Every structure is written in structure tokens, then in C-alpha cells.
UniProtKB/TrEMBL annotation, chains A, B, C, D:
One GO term of the biological process aspect: amino acid metabolic process
Keywords, in A-Z order: Pyridoxal phosphate
GO molecular function annotation: lyase activity
Assembly and oligomerization: Homotetramer.
Cofactor requirements of the protein: pyridoxal 5'-phosphate
Pfam families membership: Beta_elim_lyase
Domain Aromatic amino acid beta-eliminating lyase/threonine aldolase: 3-287
Protein name from the UniProt record: Low specificity L-threonine aldolase
Length: 333, 333, 333, 333
């Protein structure tokens, strides 16, 4: 019974079907009929004209976005615990040509506008210090908190005041949308977001993420850099088809809701242990190593999060029985 | 009836089946049971211990290999018409940190040892000139010629004499093996190759290539750079499963043979028009634009190759009837 | 008696005096009173508002200029024998983040507009091929030819038609101005040049070159990259003072004329041996290795230029007697 | 009366004389007779065989050193207030190809071995996190503290245990040697330092620093990168001559002692205001903005260091009278 990570879950059957169905000769790269539908499909979802590119990994999506927003000699503000800082092996530096990540603090990996303001104020406006040029926030955050639209908008205002491009790492965007009930538009471009890594892999996709540009001209550069970084697939239709399958009938929302619901059940079972509010599909619990060992002995698999904490992650296909069992097991510790 | 490129063909059904079959929760990245089989499976094929990494695109495979063989301040020798020079958007520079491609000539995109020797001799041994550190050859070449094992070995000797790491871009390695009848081992490490981009996508795969390191220690660096360039898939099992399906029962060889056979049929139909010998699955023909237009009017699709030439590419599932029709149509021009 | 290279010559005494004279406490970096004069001084020389930055080496000047004109994923067109290709250790790739040098042919290292046009035409307008974004010419060229203003203008037109930024490597700009009798303005911005590496080191400077931006906004990025590449000197006044000393009383022109005159004397002595017309301070002569040895035995020092050719370079302080002796020695071979 | 920075001071007359004296034709780059003496001169000073390269700026020295010690995908540990992090415009990322700076805390910009150990322990040993490969310390630190040899040795032990190359930014190495009374050898290679940026510009040089490699093989790569970053001067003799002049008669030590003595005088005048012990040529004082304004009104020039602090920097030629006046002025605030 694995609660290790949503990125290890199986893909949704509809996604596998879409791959199989798109498996026929068509124009290579992104000239095929599936890829050609992406702009329209995502524009409808976001209620504005967007450019939508498939990429295969979240790291690629994040870093291509950042590379359009920040020059090699600029800095990207982000949370100290951001995925781009901690889990991408320095990829942002590769894609941007060496841009610096300036690390900010914030409860639950969430940034506040005043933190952004203060960070900008600390930088001398001279050639000796790396000037901030972009800001990246994660929604839902690495600790499972979801920004509300108003919170993103406040961050977006700060970004604009300081001339920062705004990127949202939406590896768990579905979970944030499902939790907040906000529209995708309100959580992004209406709040000042320039580019969104719209994650599908953690939400039932196999190997397709959408990179969405609300400032559409940025996509011109991104398509070049996608190729230059080896991310232009010749049979790109298999990625486009996955995305379309996830959008179809709002499967992405349905999956996000299921994962969130499973997380809530576990949160309910252990309200006193919660390290962070549960606003997506991650549950961080205070737990001694003995307790953790006891759970593992019962067949549960999960991540130790430093000393005295564990992380449980649910997914679109978290098994109901397993969730119930784990909830019970935690409650009875 | 498309003869445009093998990279646009459908994937083999066995590959799609393997993706579906591997679609279950397992350890993320390359910790799953499929990925863990790759070293052994390719070691058996190559009759020596190798490290085998999945990557999704040929560009990624080539550039990761080159980045392990050449420092940022070194040069990579390659043919003027090499894919890494002409069709990868400068990706080698991104992955290596700016290494230079030094372009060499050679009939049919094939390099000769003396050309390599001469290129090395031209470089002054000082800090002002970029020193060659690696050599990349393509087998089969971009013009559909296949290196024999003895030819690779002669190149390998030249590389060793000048301290060059040797990379083989095997986007069409299956076609070269099928045409020459040489063993994979003889065409690679026994001939001095350090790293091979073993292509599957053009040969029936969907989005999985194998990056093979014969100097196994190079793989340690490559796995870091794979992640850093955004090419480490969380559900990597879907790539590993494709490779294993292609190796199973030597499907890769069967596919290569089929594509080669289709090319030979067309070559036989137009012996006087051949620009290059047909030693893989590509056929380059002299043809006026009027003739090309006539073929297109009959429903055939292909690439103009400069002025007065066309390129026909066959694949593992080139339609027999279409091949016969095109052969006849060319013969009767 | 050394005719090896102008870059090894002594600096002009006025330059050394200027360094000594500027050796007093002032604002660091480029905030001092000397540095603050550069824009005005060069604007007057060029008859238009320019931004002028000191840098210490020609490589730095060239590469900073190119980095403002070409993105990491673009190509820079230049002659096959250009200094940026052959003698800068790959520095353009470092400064631009991996831009590609596309090598063109041309008599005497001089480019023609039609060569530039043809090079642009050869590139497919897709994401697979690196798109040209800049063009670099050297004046005087690496073989001592000088572009006339009309020739630069024709190149400039071609550059503009294809959206290429135009850089001039003027390591021997003084020699070109002196030879052609054209104004600095006519040879540069009036002919479409965006940025000029205005060389002084080969012309009597110690370690100061001027990087001139005619598109002034480019300088904003260049000053950041100058610092980021370690080229912002804390006592920059010593560089600025050198440039001002060279401009003072047109010392740079006087030095250029002297070097050219010495070259002409040697050219006159060996009209039948000339490989290229002598239009600056370099003389390329056909010469057997026996003849070269004979000259060396008489105490002359110079560069073999491949087989059967030698290169003689004069400088602002080439010794008249040595020049006369060498001219006589060549004439009597 | 300026106490703004030592990097704005005049160069020592002996340095200017050396430049003038070396101003004659010699072999270009570092083939001249001055440059050829550096290895021997510094080997004697350090009591072991070293390779010594001239470079013109501290940023270049630091970043060339780091680029030999850390691959593009590695991390460099340093103090949060290190010059390489705060004042070099991201140059380490340019030179290393994107290595990450991991920021550590420590009183007075000084690192402790246990801090290094803890930082290494925090990094998961997987491909997702950037692995530490180098460690950079500054001696004297950015806050004017000097590491003792035993402290460096403890750091060096920690570095070795974790496979980190050890770099010392010695922009004020002379001040540290003068203050501690330790030998250059004890403060560097005997304590595990692999490469030292030996600063001269802040200590009376004009534009020459020495980059010292105790692991001599690293210099082979550094000389290539020096050229590739535009830092190989054609008249390098002017840099080498400066270094030799500074070594001659231990002028560098004499200058360091003078600067330190001036700082001590001011420290003595304001013992209660000291933010840090004064162990080099920098004095950080607590001071209200009114007090600072009062000093400025008396003609003193210095840096505000955040709110409520100022920084005074002395140099080899700090004027005795000015130092006395400022000391008195502070004492009577």
C-alpha cells in the first residue's frame, strides 16, 4: 500500500487508450493533428488565448518557462523548498544559462508578497549583484498548500512592480484548482501569471505535461529551446493525445478531486498530527520513528520527511481500502 | 503514401502493448523493475558489460553521450551533414556547455580515418584553438550508408591516437546491423566506440532510445545530466518497457530488415538515379522537380533534398503495396 | 628584429604615462573621471551618440558584443578564418551560452553580401536548425585586407534584410581607417554596424580596448555581462586613461599609419610574392622554407603561415632600420 | 578622506614602475620572461611547487579556480555573505557552466567545519539534488576576520571527508597573513587548500592577481579557461611584472601590515562600536545615521552597511593624518 509519491502511480486507462489511439503515422514533431489542437483546447479552459506546448517532464516544463522569463545573468526568486531548487538537479541553471535561484522563506512553502518585496529591496541596483528577473511559485505547494486566486494576485502585483516574470509550477495544479474551487483563469493569468507548468503526470498522465504561455510571444522562444534541450519528440502526438484525454470531460479535475479526497480522509484521521493544513493531495504528519516503523510493519509505504515527520501522498487511483486502513492505523497509533 | 521520414511512422503494436502492460505503480524514475533490467539485457546483446539508460529522444541520447566525452572547452569532430550539426538546434552546445562542432567532409556523410587525422593535425596545440576531444559518427549515416566493422575500427584507432572519445549516433543502428550483418559488438566497442545512441524511435519505438555506455563509468555522469536536462521521467518504466519489447525476440532486427528491404526494392527500381548506395532505409534519387511533382500527383509524399534530388525513407511498417506502386511509378518516369 | 605580431609590441610611452598619471584614488570600477569621459570622447570621434566601454582584451570585446547580438540558440555568421573562430578558444560560446559560429568563405577573410545571403538561404526556417542572428566581420581582416565603407554598407544591408545584428571586430580598425581614408563613422554605424570592437592593444595600447555600441541600448546588457565575465576592473581608470591617451591628438591614427607604412615598404620590396594585397599592417608572402630559414638566419623573426607562406606584421613602433633590412633581405632572396 | 574601499586606492609606485619597466617587446601572452618567473617565485613563497597564473581581477581568479574544482552539475558551498555570492554578478555560474552556490551561515562570514559537515549531510545522495563538489572560504573574510591555520585545516579536513575541492578567496590574503603571522604555506596547502586567489589589487597592485594552484594539474584546465573567458592578455608581462614587484622584498606583506595597522588604530578608537573583531583592514562599526552624517560632514567617506552600521576600509596607503582624524572624530561622537 504505497503512499510514497503520486508520480509513481499508474497512468489513467483513458491516457493509455489515447496513446494507443494516436499511434498512427502523422506529421512528425508537433505538426500532427493532436498537437495542433492544444492551443484551442487550453485556450478554452483558460478563457483566453494561450499557447500550449507538450513536454514530457515537469522539470522540462518548469525550466523552459523560466528560461523565457529570466536571462542568464538574472535571478529567479523562489521558495527555499521549491522543487526547482531542491529536486531538479540544477536544471534551471542549465536551461537559463546560469540564472541564480534566490531562496525565500514562507510557511508551508508558500510565498507572501511582502517577502518578495523585501527580497527585491535587498538587492543593490548595480552590476555586482544579480538582479531579480523572475519569480516562481508552486501551486499546490511542495507542502500541499493551495494559493487562493487573491493570494496569487497579490504576488502577481509584487512581481509586476519589480519587473519580474511570474511562473507557476503547477505540478499539482489540478489539486489546487479542485481544492480552492477557483477557475484556472483566476488562479493564473488573471492573477498575473505569465507561464504555467500544468502538471498531468502526477494526476494520471503517463509522460505529458502542458506548458502554458499566457504571454503568448514567450512560446516562440520556448519551442526553440524545447528542441535545443532534446525535448521535441518526433511522435509528439502521443503526448498531445494524453493531454487531450485528460481535458476530455474534465478528467483532470475528477482525478484531482479523488486524490484530494483521499488526503482529506487521512487528515481527518489524525488532526493533531498535521504539520500543515491539507489543501491538496499531500499529508505531512508528525510521527516518531517508532510509529512510522509500526505503520511500515503493517505494509504501508511512505517517505520520512526529516526527523519526526512523514509525508503521505495520495493519487487519482489511491485505493479506497488502503486509505481507510492507513487512516485507521494512524488513528490507533 | 508517405515516404517522408521513419520518425513519423506508427510505433510497433508490441511497443504499445508493453507501455500498457507496464502501466502500474512501481518505483519512480529508473528504480522500477523494467528499468532495472536494461543493463543486463543490453549487456547480453553487446556481449560485454554495458550501462544502458533510457532517454526519450535521439537528440537527448546524442547530447548526453557527447557531454560525457567532451568538456565545454573542447571540440567534437563530426561530418558536416551530421544530425548533431544540422538537426538538433544547437543542443550539443547546450549539453556540453559550449563545445564546438568541427565539421569534416566525407562521401555520403561517412568519415574516413585520414580525414580525422588531418583535422587533428590542423589544430595548433595551444590555448587559442579549441582542442578536439571527441568524435561522432553516424551509423547508418544521414545518407543511408552503413559503416562496416573494419571501417569503424579504423576510425576508432584514429580517435584513440588523438585522445578522442568516440560516439556513434545510431539513430538507424538497426538498419546498419541488418545491412552489414555484423554483430552489435563488432560495430561498436570492439571497434573503439565509447558510447552509442541506440535508436528505437525510427525503428518501431514510440519515445524510447537507449544510451549505451561501453566505458561504463561515463554513465555515472550521464545519469546526473539526464536529470539536469529534464530527461528523467518519473514513470520511466514506460520507456524501459519499450526497449525490452524491442529487444524481445530481436524485434528491433526484424524491423530493421523490413525497412531495409523496402528501400532495396525502390533502389532496384531506379538504379540509375541513385545518389548514394542504399545500405539502410534511405533512398536518395536524382530527380527533376517535374518528375517529383508527377510522383506527388500520384499521392506519394517525400522530401526534396536540395535541387534535383529527393529522399525516400522507408520504415518497419512501410506498406508493401505503396512501395511497389512507388517503385513502379519511379521506373516509369 | 621581430615581425611576429603587433600584439607583442611595446605600448606607446604616452599610454604608460597615462596609466601612471591616472594612478590615484578615485571611484572604483567605471565610476572614475576617466571612464566617465569615454562616451563623450568616442561619440565625438564617431559623430553620433555612442556608448563606449573599456575592456582589457580583444576576445572580451568581441564576445561581449556578440553576446548582446545573438541569443544562446542562435548562430553567428563569420569568415572561416575569423579570429573569433580560430583564436579565441571557443570564447564566443562561453559568452553567448552556446551560440554557433557558421563559417563562410571569402577571399582574404573578407565576406561578400552574396555569401551572407546564401548562408541565410541555406538555413531551413524551423526549430531544428540554428537560425542566424548575428554577423561578424573583421576590419582590417585577418589577412590584412580593409573593407571600404561601401563594402561594409552592402554587408550591412544584407544583415538587416535577414535580421542579423552586425558586429565588427576592429582589432586593427586603426589600420583600416588609415588605409581607406574613410571616417570611423562611415566604416561603422553609417554602414549598419551595431557594435565595434575597437582595438588599441595591437596599436600601442597596453591592455585596453574599446567596445563601442552604436545601438546604445545594447550597452546596458554588456555592462552586466562585463562584470559577470570578470572583466570589470576595480581600477578601471587605468584602462580608460589608455583609451583617452590614444584618442588624444589622434595618436591612434598616427600609430596606424606608421604600421601601415612599414608594411607597404615590405610589400614594395616583394610585389611578386604577395599572397594578398597589403591594406593594413600585415604582409603575407609566398616563400619556400629554405628562403624563410635564410631570413631567420639573418635575425628576422616571423610566423610561418602554413606551407610556403610567411606572415610579417608591423606595428606602430616597427624599427625603420629593421624594416629596411628585412625589405632588402627579401628582395635579394 | 576616503575609507570606502581598498579596491579604489592607488597602486603602489613600485607596481607602476614595474609596468613601465616591462614595457618592451617580448613574447606575447604568458610566454614572456616575467610570466615565466611566476611559478618559481610563488613556489618559493609557498615552500612547495605551485602553478601561478596571472589574472586581472579577483572575480576571474575566483571563478577560474572554482571552474577547475566543480563541474557544471555540482554545488559550491560558501558563506551567505561571500563575495562570489554577493558581488560577482553570477560569474561563478558562467565560468562553471551553472554550478550552484549553496549558502552557509557563520559568524563574521567565517565558516566552521561542522557547518560544512551539516550542509553535506542535508543533501540526499541522488540525482535529484545537486551534490556538493567544492567549498570556498574567504581569508580574510568579507567582515575582516582572519582564519588561523588550524581553522583552515579543520575546514580542509571536512572538505576532504566529503570529496570537496577547497578554494580560498584571498582577495585580502596579505591582510590575513599579516594579522595571523602564519606562513602562506600553513594557511593554504598545508591546511588542505587546492587553489588560492591571491589578491594584489586591494593591496597595492593595479590590475594583477595571482591564481595559485597547489594541485598543480588543475592549472592545465585553468589556462584554457583563462583564454576562453577572454582573460589571456597579449601583453601579459605587465601583469606578471606587477606580481613580481609585489613579491620583491615582501612588499605585499609590508602593504598588508600598513593597512592592518590603520584599521587597528580606528578599532582602538571605538572599541564599543565594533561589530566584529578587527583582524584585517576592515572595521565595521555600529553607528546611527545621524552619527554617520556627522562624520561625512567632516569630510569622511565610507560605506553604510545596512542600517545602523558602517564599514571603514583602510589600504596600504591610507593617510596617517586622515586615519588619526577619523579615529578622533569617531571617539568624540
Amino acid at each position: 500500500m504505497r503512499f510514497f509519491s503520486d508520480n509513481a502511480a499508474a497512468a489513467h486507462p483513458a491516457v493509455i487508450d489515447a496513446i494507443a489511439e494516436s499511434n498512427r503515422l502523422d506529421t512528425a514533431y508537433d505538426g500532427d493533428s493532436w498537437s495542433q489542437c492544444l492551443d484551442a483546447a487550453f485556450s478554452e479552459l483558460f478563457e483566453t488565448d494561450v499557447r500550449a506546448l507538450w513536454v514530457a517532464t515537469g522539470t522540462a516544463a518548469n525550466c523552459l518557462a523560466l528560461a523565457t522569463l529570466c536571462p542568464s545573468y538574472g535571478a529567479i526568486l523562489c521558495h527555499r523548498d521549491a522543487h526547482i531548487e531542491n529536486d531538479e538537479a540544477g536544471a534551471p541553471a542549465l536551461f537559463t544559462g546560469g540564472a541564480k535561484l534566490t531562496l525565500l522563506d514562507g510557511e508551508g512553502a508558500k510565498l507572501l508578497p511582502e517577502t518578495v518585496e523585501a527580497a527585491c529591496a535587498r538587492v543593490r541596483k548595480d552590476v555586482h549583484q544579480v538582479q531579480p528577473r523572475a519569480l516562481s511559485i508552486t501551486n499546490a505547494t511542495e507542502y500541499g498548500l493551495s494559493y487562493r486566486a487573491s493570494e496569487v494576485a497579490a504576488i502577481g502585483d509584487a512581481a509586476r512592480r519589480h519587473g519580474l516574470g511570474l511562473h507557476m509550477d503547477g505540478a499539482r495544479f489540478a489539486n489546487a484548482v479542485a481544492f480552492t474551487g477557483e477557475s484556472p483563469a483566476n488562479l493564473t493569468w488573471r492573477a498575473g501569471v505569465d507561464a504555467l507548468s500544468f502538471g498531468f503526470v502526477k494526476n494520471g498522465g503517463l509522460n505529458a505535461e502542458a506548458l502554458i504561455f499566457f504571454r503568448r510571444e514567450l512560446a516562440d522562444e520556448a519551442v526553440v529551446m524545447r528542441k535545443r534541450s532534446g525535448h521535441l519528440f518526433s511522435k509528439g502526438r502521443s503526448l498531445a493525445a494524453q493531454l487531450l484525454a485528460m481535458l476530455d470531460g474534465d478528467l483532470w479535475m475528477e482525478n484531482g478531486r479523488k486524490a484530494n479526497a483521499a488526503a482529506q480522509r487521512m487528515a481527518t484521521a489524525a488532526p493533531d498530527r498535521l504539520v500543515h493544513p491539507v489543501e491538496a493531495n499531500e499529508v505531512f504528519l508528525r510521527m516518531t520513528s517508532d510509529e512510522a516503523a509500526a505503520l511500515r510493519a503493517q505494509g504501508f509505504d511512505f517517505y520520512d520527511w526529516g526527523v519526526g515527520e512523514i509525508r503521505l501522498v495520495t493519487s487519482w487511483n489511491s485505493d479506497d481500502t488502503a486509505v481507510a486502513k492507513l487512516s485507521a492505523a494512524i488513528a490507533s497509533l
